[in-house]
Design a protein that fits this description.
single chain, two-stranded antiparallel sheet, 239 residues, mainly alpha
Length: 239
């Protein structure tokens, strides 16, 4: 997200046309995700360690881009952070991503392959699925989507900041787990993740309205993740 926010603001400040800058930064993010995927499948490295390392590398790159100083963002792409017919444009983008994601996961061969690889990569490979290709594709798409979220945040705040998305990792994991995604893989849905995100948002807003300190929000989210994981494991044992 920080790469998307800082990257597009920096490219536009250098005189690059906004749409071209958007294409460049999304392609760059996808490339970073692809590199992570290749390192994981070809070097047989731990996915968590590789993505954590890439996160730190990208974080360093964003600091080099901006020297730690927010970069002003003022062009026609600012509409991404505004409203259309009283509804934030980000909601429309989310709806499009959800619909496309649902169709891909439920109606296409690639989507079925994603679930197969997540459930049992070895069995998927023996059944003829190109496991390496599927994994690399998913890493690339995830990186591009996270980058787009950063661009939207940049448009909303009218500046690209290196702190964009900081701490969101826990929120993402919590939303997915609450929404029914299994940490063991092979299970989950777009609608479930949306519901998980909504529940998380309600919890956070409730804490704000009740004037409960932010530290307790983090503690609660951690406990919710543990509870959701425990319920997932119990359900798997029953099966």
């Amino acid at each position: 997200m920080a790469f998307g926010a800082v990257g597009i603001a920096k490219l536009i400040s250098m005189g690059i046309e906004p749409i071209a800058a958007l294409a460049i930064i999304l392609a760059g993010a996808a490339l970073c995700g692809l590199i992570s995927g290749i390192a994981i499948v070809k070097l047989n490295l731990n996915p968590f360690i590789v993505t954590l390392a890439m996160m730190n590398i990208i974080s360093g790159v964003t600091y080099l881009f901006s020297n730690g100083i927010p970069i002003a963002f003022n062009n026609y792409l600012n509409f991404l952070g505004q409203e259309f017919l009283t509804i934030p444009v980000a909601i429309y983008v989310m709806a499009i991503v959800m619909v496309v994601g649902h169709v891909i996961l439920s109606k296409t061969e690639f989507g079925r392959n994603v679930f197969a690889v997540g459930g049992n990569a070895r069995a998927a490979k023996l059944s003829g699925i190109n496991v390496d290709k599927v994994k690399c594709s998913v890493y690339a798409m995830t990186a591009a989507l996270a980058c787009m979220a950063g661009v939207i945040t940049c448009a909303n705040l009218s500046s690209g900041d290196v702190s964009t998305g900081s701490g969101y990792e826990l929120n993402v994991i919590a939303a997915c787990v609450i929404g029914g995604c299994s940490l063991d893989g092979g299970q989950g849905s777009i609608l479930g993740v949306f519901i998980g995100s909504a529940i998380l948002g309600v919890i956070k807003n409730g804490f704000v309205l009740l004037r409960i300190p932010a530290s307790w929000q983090t503690i609660t989210i951690g406990l919710v993740i543990i509870l959701a994981c425990t319920m997932d494991q119990m359900k798997r044992r029953k099966k």
